[in-house]
Every structure is written in C-alpha cells, then in structure tokens.
Amino acid sequence: MAVMRSMLLAAAQNAWLRNRASHYRFVRRSVSRFMPGETLEEALQAAASLASKKIAAVFTHLGENIADGAEAAQVTEHYLNALTQIHNSGLTAEISVKLTQLGLDLSADLCYENVSRIIERERRDAIVWIDMEASNYVDRTLDIYKRVLQVHPNVGICLQGYLRRTKADLAALLPLHPAIRLVKGAYNEPAEIAFAEKRDVDENYFKLGTEMLTAQKQGRCQRAAFGTHDVALIRRLAEFAASQQLPKEQFEIQMLFGIQRAEQERLAQQGYRSIVLVAYGTYWYAWFVRRLAERPANLWFMLRNLFAA
Questions:
Q1: Among 121, 120, 118, which residue's Cα sits nearest to residue 130?
Q2: Among the options 105, 131, 169, 202, which is catalytic?
Q3: For 30-73, how does the pLDDT look when each residue is reduced to its tens digit (9 = 90+)?
Q4: Is 53 helix (H, G, I), strand (E, B) or coil?
Q5: Which of 42, 103, 162, 245 could disulfide-link 185, Cβ–Cβ 3.0 to 4.6 Å?
Q6: How far is the C-alpha of 228 from the C-alpha of 237, rounded, in Å?
Q7: Is 131 an annotated catalytic residue?
C-alpha cells in the first residue's frame, strides 16, 4: 500500500496525466463521487441537501500554485462572491482556501492582502480555513496565518498529522488561541519529514488530537476540528472528548463529500458537529488523485468505474 500511495502521489503532480484525465469518462464518473460538480451552484445545492441532515459544509474552490497576480485576484473575487452567495442562501457553511491559489508563490504580501480581503467578507462567527500544502510551504503558510490572526480572529489553519514537526507547530500556535483542523496529510514527503507507516501517523494524530481537545476545554484553542475518515480514530477521540466532559456539539469532524456518508449522518444524529468539505471547480485532477492515495478503497472504486465504462 505504501508503494501504491507513493505512485499515486507522484501521478498527482504529472502534467501529462493531468491533461488527459478529463477526457476519460470513467475518471470523471469516479470524481463525481467526491465532488457534486464543477460550479459553485452545484456545491450550494449539495450543501442544502447536507443541511437537511443537520450536516454543515465547508466549500473549497479547487486550484493551487497560481503564478499570475491577475489570476490570484480572480480567485479572490470568486471567494468574495461565494461568501455573498453563502450568506444569502442562509446555509451553515464556511470556506477553505489554499494560499498558493491566492498568490503565495508570487509574494507573501500579495497573498496576505488577498486572504485578508476574504476574511473581512466572512461573518465574525464563522471561520475562513487556510489549507496546508506540501512541507516546503508549511513555514510560509504558518507565517501568514499568524500575521492574519493578529487582526482577524475568525481564521483557522490546517495541520498535518503525518509531519514530524507538527507537535512543535501545535505548541507554538496554542498561545495564539487558534482554530485548527487536523488532517493526516496527502503529499509525498520523505521519511525524515513525515511518518511513513500508517500506525505511526495514526498514533501521532491521536496524540495531537488529545492536545487540541484539552486546549479547547481550557479555552486555549478556539476550535478543534478533525479532518479524517478513520472511524476507529474518530471514536477514540470522541471517547477522549467525553472523558474531558466536552459537550458533543464541541467535538467536530470534517469529512470529504461522498466518503463515509453513514458516519457523517451518525455523527450528526448523535449531536456531534458533523461537517462535509464540498470541493468544486475544474482543477480537480491533483486533488482527486491525492484522495485516491489517502484511501486505497477509493482506487478500487475508480477501477470499478473503468470496467463499467
């Protein structure tokens, strides 16, 4: 499985495969499991359906590594418009952005200005989430997050459980009263940077999660959110949260659209904070292949679509 994961993560960065993937019907059919469509309107419709099940949404407009200032400005305007539509819809929904989509590769100051405009448009009681990207972006992403957080408390950051450095990053962030979403991680990193074995990633994730929940109980963490589809891990963390007497509505799980739907609904029905990440846009290839790498069962799903084509 480790070899397969490495191959898929390498494929996620392959321009030749990216350019051809969209031409194959079985690939597009597989992608549709994980995103309701390529437009914001389709994402809003999916969020309305989730809301009927007491499940909230986080929207992300797919794309990364923009190398043109005008394009970064267009993405910023898209998110500003998206927030207006979300607010007008009355949906309980937030957004999640990638800093390389907002100009981080061009200029830290440009990126800061773009993300600040987006946060200023958001309601004060909602979070704008900043995604974490590959390890070479962690320091720059954290620098901008800390800078933005000094002005806007309604901003959250994603940390990755498979990185060896995350324990220290979490400790440095907690005095700032952050909102944190913890994920396992979906990039191809060397062993000296990231844990290679699943059991090590899981154990590090659980330890980080208990620190976040403890900090939330103590008022040092604004929101502790867990981005994972690992049901066993979710239940371990839920048990820990209960032992700390955290109310169920303060235990937050964020999953991807179309994955572990029964678990999403179970969490919502039992009073936990169940949230689904709804991705949309045309730049879905790298994002989709990383989803395959995260969970081998997703690859078998795509192969079944191939033979059904």
A1: 118
A2: 131
A3: 666 778 888 999 999 999 999 999 999 999 999 888 999 999 99
A4: coil
A5: 162
A6: 11
A7: yes
